[in-house]
Specification:
By secondary structure, the protein is mainly β. 12% of the residues lie in helices and 43% in strands. Among the domains are: 2-265, Porin (Beta Barrel), CATH 2.40.160; 300-414 and 692-699, GMP Synthetase, Chain A, domain 3 (2-Layer Sandwich). The protein has a 13-stranded antiparallel beta sheet with strand order 21-22-23-24-25-26-27-30-31-32-33-34-35.
Length: 702
Amino acid sequence: MKEAIYSGFLIFVVGSPLGADTISGSFSNFGTPGLVEMPTADVREDAELGISFGGFENQQRITLNFQITPQLSGAFRYSRLDEFSGPGFDPIFDRSFDLHYQIFPEGSWRPALAVGLRDFMGTGIYTGEYVVATKTVTPRIRTTLGLGWGRLATEGGFENPLGAVFDELKIRPALDVGEGGEPSFDQFFRGDAALFGGVEWKVSEALTFTAEYSSDAYAREENIGIVERDTPLNFGLTFSPSDDFYLSAHWLGGVDFGLAATIAATPNDRVASSGFESAPQPVISRGSVQVTPSSTGLPESNVQATKTALARDGLRLTAITRSQRSVSVAFENERYRAEAQAVGRVARILTATMPRDIDSFTIIPTRDGIPISAVTIARSDLEALENQPDAAASMLARSEIAEAPLDIATGLTARDERLLWGISPFVALQLFDGRDPLRTEYGVQAALSYAIQPNLFLEGRARYRISGNRQDASIAASDLHPVRRNVGKYGEVGTVGIENLALHWYGRPGEALYSRASLGYLETMFAGASTELLWKPVDSRLALGAELNYVVQREYDLGFGAQSFDDIGGTYDVVTGHASLYYAFENGFHGQVDVGRYLAGDWGATFRLDREFANGWKVGAYATFTDVPFEEFGEGSFDKGFRITVPFDWALGNATRDSANVSLASLSRDGGARLRVDGRLYERIRGSHEVALTDGWGRFWR
């Protein structure tokens, strides 16, 4: 018997040098890489985003899993637990977060090794930690062996081996979740430990059989009689016709039948084929004949030809000037997500519309009537490189990206159609609160934008609500003024409400400086004035900003008045503001820290980290900590959430700047609430600066 156990352990550790790519991992019914319920040491493809639906009769889970880096993944889980408070009680809805880090990948003779935290920042229902190894044994068989703590040590537990090194790790203190949402640092890798493991057998190309020994005994659920487990053995059968779809059936503990489905997508893989947009203007070569300057002016026919050609490509000419043998062209990109693609299209058009004696083009992207950067390109380089190998990289090496000239701002023109408006349906969702997974509101909305000056706009949106139940959300009161928790009271079904209506002015007060001033009904809940100043050199990864606001809380009917509150004897007004630091890291990561005063008068900071991909996908998270105590903040302890941006051109293949934005956040509470004003500068500016232009330069010739 001892020899058999030793042989099995040797097979696990040594495994097979073959087939490491033959059998790939699947997802557990917790929505993360795993067996049936236990984790494996697998990681997914870098940047992959997976959504899973899984569970059994008494527990159902929706999980969003994101491969943050090649080794680190994170997951957000929303679970429905029937009768978790006891038989006959209503179900509860729980939010939890996981982290999984692969220490090293599988090698020819070495297993993959990973460490993870399950439900490390929630109510603690699924809290557990683990160290796990996974190894391919044959081209069709993989084994997994792990050590779990917390909930993952409730079956077959024994004294914590880490206690031999750190005595305090022998005892796991009672879990005190408070209001939930806090990392359970005092729990990590403490108390009893237990072994878990399993085997995966690839029956066919699309079918995998899994058997596991689970170290989760569902102890609390069994104690109150809502779940049964006759054995720690679980079995699963997974159908996976491709690497982005998994459908599994599970037999759990000899009693329950479970199902799980996962759909995965990688931002780097397009849904639609690219190139549906019109082909760019071919470069028109001047040939080898020497050209003598004909004049210092620019004929009106050339200007009009340029304007017409740009408009055909979704680009708006805002200024054009000539100086000797160079021309400067300012434009606004209304179609292409990557500013480098717009710059490339402008450059191609200029080879066809500019006089032959023009030798260089300075192309100036603008936004909201302000010049943002200046890209200078030699006409001869365009003529020489258009059809050459590695033309994009060669053109980037020969181009100059610099600060936009300040004086050109005075010559910019407003758009020809000063009034833009539209009517469309809308659907507003509130996802994953603690009592209802989905609240909705839908109706019809009208939006307008009027360009008073090239850099001065009147913009607004009104909505007619046909139906909805967002007002039914139950959010516990706090000692803070209700600056967010009563958002459901704003806008009544069957009435028209003004969501926002404000003047926005943008400026360039100096080199590397940008400014904004907004006045009016700034958002659904607040009206007033907002000012902002941003310092962002064109070649810098660092930016600094400052914002100052004075606002008054609006009436619930979303009219033009201010709401009166009995407890304070009148209207609520507040001065808020933040100092901000932005930094563009390598590999598409963008960090932001905002420090200042929030709408409820609390002071603190918000930390954000996003990962942006070359095709426009963006996945990020944020957390806000203020001087509001966790118990006073209420459920969730502090404001936090995830956000995902999916560009429409990725899905459709057509050139467009539009995108879908999804936020998965805690309940709208009052602590750490910031004004939601349109037009903040950093995101409007950085896409035309050197880092973003360089990252997107592969689209220059498209």
